Amino acid sequence: MDPLSVSASVTGLALFAAKVVGFLSDVHDAPTAASDLLSEVQAMHLIFEQLRNFVHRFADHDRQYISRIDIDGLVTILTGCVCTFSEIDGLLENCDRKRPQLGLWDRAKWATKTNDITRVVGKLQSYKSSLTLLFVMLVSSVALLHD
Question: What's the CA gap between 107 and 109, in Å, rounded?
Fold first, then answer.
């Protein structure tokens, strides 16, 4: 996968993360798992934005530098992120956020999803760690290539 395709993937993830943040920010009285999910998605959104900017700038560099950087690990992690955000989309599909306070039925729907939300939060934490480490390695690699 070339850097422009990676940039497009990261941009899509950043946009979807922003959508999830907007959705979860409007939900009041949801279980704590929902606020944990919001925190992780906000962190992922920041990482996606930084990574998108890096990959976009990196794509403008000389092709010899690009060919010497292995981005397979990044593609693998991004694929996992896409799958996890798809799970989040499924979890949030039937949740109502139009009312300022959740009714009893809405809270019950959220409560039934607590275990799934907690599992997804764990996945996001894992991907966040992997992306952070890989991002540091990519930045270091570029710095070394230019020395």
Answer: 5
Number of domains in the chain: 1
Residues of the chain falling short of pLDDT 50: none
* Residue 24 pLDDT: 85
Nearest C-alpha neighbor of 147 from the set 72, 65, 92: 65
Distance of CA 71 to CAs 57, 60, 62, 114, 117, Å?
15, 16, 16, 34, 29
pLDDT value of position 1: 57
For 10-25, what is each residue's pLDDT tens digit?
A: 889 999 999 999 888 8
Alpha carbons 147 and 142: distance in angstroms, whole number: 9
- CB count, 10 Å around CB of 60? 8
Tokens linked to 28: 């009041």
d(CA 41, CA 117) in angstroms, rounded, equals 12
Its domain, for residue 141, covers 3-145
Count of other CB atoms within 10 angstroms of residue 68: 11
Report pLDDT for 2: 60
State both tokens at 117. 């939300």
Q: Are 10 and 31 in contact (CB under 8 A)?
A: no
